[in-house]
Design a protein that fits this description.
Layout lengths: L6 E7 L3 H13 L6 E7 L6 H8 L4 E4 L5 H10 L6 E5 L3 E3 L3 H11 L3 E9 L9 E2 L4 H8 L1 H6 L2 H11 L15 E2 L2 E2 L3 E5 H6 L12 H11 L3 E12 L17 H16 L3 H25 L4 H23 L7
Parallel strand pairs: 1-2, 1-4, 2-3, 6-11
Antiparallel strand pairs: 4-10, 5-11, 6-10, 7-9, 8-11
Helix pairs in contact: 1-2, 5-11, 10-11, 11-12
Amino acid sequence: MSDSCPLGVIIVSYNTHQLLRKCLMTLQGVGQEGPLDIIVMDNASTDGSAQMVSSEFPDVRLIAMDRNLGFAQANNRAMSEMSPAEVLFLNPDAIVSPGTITEMRKTLAAYPRAAAVGAQLVSEKGRLQPSSFAFPSLWREFWNFLPELKGVFRVRELASGISRLIPQLWRGSYRAISEAHQVDSIGGACMLVRSDAFRQVGGFSDRFFLYHEEMELCYRLRQRGWEVWLEPRARVVHFEAQASGVRRFRLPTMPILGYRVEGMDYFWATHRPGMPHAVWRFMARSLLRLRAALLRAAGCSAGRTVRTRLRERAEEIRGITRELKEKKQGLDS
């Protein structure tokens, strides 16, 4: 697709006033890479985000919702207002570097079966962040429920080293490749998609509120014969965790933890039904119960304030295990 053709840009925002302003200002600075049709979907922010967009960025289309639709539904709603052949889904906590859009569009144009292209995410200090992900497996999910151990044993660094010797073992962020290459899925912070491919598979599943929706979308795209690519030469500064509060190598707090577990439960129920889903649920409940028990044990020797906080956290985690046990068909129940 030629750079002279308009590129749709969709940004879903919820209480990200300052980050959103910086994101939009950066997009103004890359306007020479081609015309942009930008929509900001504001999910009922209470920090003045919608008012800021309306007053400071009159060329940006603002759709202000009266309730929080979540990531998937908000993007689908904005997509229904779009006509460009290519659309960039961009987080408000992401800053597009000069040349990034051009590189991503070149990659999409070079591979006719490419439905989506992701950029390499980096921290504000230039540190590489995970930008592509392998589809879920029980092994990967084990580490995700115990992220502290993932940091202690340096799982990412170990996998990265092994991938240099046997690159075909990983299709996620651990592959040390500097050229554009196919992956299982890409991060939703910055993903360029073909509109026709997106609509062909029905867009993001509305079953997701937040987290895992982009991975599930990539799974359905690949099932339909489309390809998903990562373009490492396209760089996007991602202010990781500033919008969500999620910390690296830490289990998220509520409500983020609930969204992530529910989303993954839906993925396994839909795409890995039967015994694999049952095993995943058993593992999830077991590891979450273990975490809750350890929290309560730690609280026994702590002061009153800390003990109360640890017990509240343990009860939140136990609540998720009860919800998983009660459901019959994942999120369909």
